[in-house]
Amino acid sequence: MLSKLKNNSLLIVVLCLIPVIIYFSPVVGGKNNVPKYFDQVFEKGRVVSIIEEDLEQDEIVPNQMSGKQVLEIEVMSGKYKGNVYESTNLLTLNHNVLAKKGMNIVIGIREDGEEPQVWVYSYRRETIVYWVMAVFLVLLVILGGMKGFRSAISLLFTGVVILFILIPQLFSGKSAIATTIVLMSLTVVISFILISEWSKKTLSAIIGTIGGIIIAGIVSYIVGQLTHLSGVNMEQGEEIAYMAQDYGIDIAGLMFAAILISSIGAVMDVAMSISSSICEIHAHRPDLSKKALFISGMNVGKDIMGTMSNTLILAFAGGSLTTMMLIYGYQLQPLQFLNLQEIAIEMIQGFAGSIGIVLTVPLTALAMSRMLSIKKEVKE
C-alpha cells in the first residue's frame, strides 16, 4: 500500500496542482486587467425562424451557398437571455454560416443605440470538439491502462501550464525565451516521471529532451536574427505587435518560444526511444562498455531521427499548405517565394526543430550510457 502511494505521489500532487494553477491564473476571474479591444460580447443563440432568404449556389466552393438571410434569433445566454432579435445574415466566401430553423449558433451582440445589434458569428462547434477530446482520452485510458491515464494527466498538465501560466507570463512582459525554457522544462520533467516513473532511463530522456529543445530554440533564434525575422512576422504577429504596446510583450523571443512548444513532443518521443533502447540492450548485455552502449544508441537513433524529422517538417508544411498552393498558382519564382517571410518562418521552424531532434539522439545516448556505467544501481 505504501509502495503504491509512493509511486502515485507525483500523480496525486499534479492532480491537486492543476485546479490550483487554474484558480490563481490571471486568465480566470478577470484578474488579467486586459484592455477592452472590442465593444461586443459573444453568446449562445438559437434561430427561431427564417423571415426571408435569397440564396444561390456558390460558384467557387461546392455545396456552399451565398447570399442573404433575414432571421429571428433568440439569445440563449448572458445579459439578454430570452430576448428575440431580427438579424441579417450575409453568406460570403469568408463568412458562411447557413442558418436553419431551430439551429444553435454563436451570436455577436453590440450595444449600439436603443437596441442591441445582433449578428450570426459562427456555428456551435464546441460540443463536437469536446466529444473528440473525450474519445481520445477514453481510448488512451482503455488501451493504455494506468500508463494511459498518467499520459492523459501529463497532457492536461502541459496544456494548463501553457494556457494558464505561459501565456499570461508572456503578456506580463516576461522574457519569452527564459519563461518558455523554464516552463517547458518543468512539463518535460513532470511528464516523463508521470509516465515512466523516476529512473536512470527517465533522467537520461529528460536530459536529452531539454538539451534538444533548447538547441532547437537557439538555432531558430539565431537564424531568425540573421534573416531579420521575429515574432512580428509570424501568423497574427502584427496584431500581437499592437497589443505589445499595452502589455510590453517580448516580441523578439516569440519565435523561440513557438519552436520549443511545437517540437517538444517529437523530441520527447526520440529521447525516450533512445533511452529505452539502450536500457533494454544493457539488460540483455550488461557486459557492454559505455562506448558500445553509446554506439548502439546511435544506431537506433539513425532510424528514428529520419522519421521524426519527417514528422516535424511535414507538420509545418501542412500548416503552410495554402501558402504553397498560392506560390504554385501565381507561378512565383524561387527568388520570390524562398524570401517570403511566411515560407522562411515555416522552414526555419521545421529545420530548427529537426536539428533539435537529431542532436537529442547523441545527448540521450551519451547520458544513458554514462549512467549505466555507474556501479551504484538505481531502480530501473
Spell out the key features of this protein.
380 residues, alpha+beta, OB fold (Dihydrolipoamide Acetyltransferase, E2P), Multidrug efflux transporter AcrB transmembrane fold, 2 domains, five-stranded antiparallel beta sheet, 5 strands, globular
Summarize the structure.
By secondary structure, the chain is an alpha+beta fold. It contains 11 helices and 5 strands; from the N terminus they run ααβββββααααααααα.
Named CATH topology of the largest domain: Multidrug efflux transporter AcrB transmembrane fold
Helical content, roughly? 55-70%
Note the total helix count.
Answer: 11
State Rg.
26 Å
**In sequence order, what are the helices and strands, one letter per element?**
HHEEEEEHHHHHHHHH
Beta-strand segment tally: 5
Mean pLDDT comes to 83
CATH class of the largest domain: Mainly Alpha
Query: What characteristic shape results from the CA principal axes?
Result: globular
Could you say which structural class the secondary elements and strand pairing correspond to? alpha+beta
Biggest beta-sheet profile: 5 strands, antiparallel
The end-to-end distance, rounded to whole angstroms, is 20 Å
List unreliable stretches of 5+ residues.
376-380
* Total count of domains: 2
Second-tier CATH architecture of the largest domain: Up-down Bundle
How are the strands of the biggest sheet laid out side by side?
Answer: 3-2-1-4-5
Strand content: 5-15%
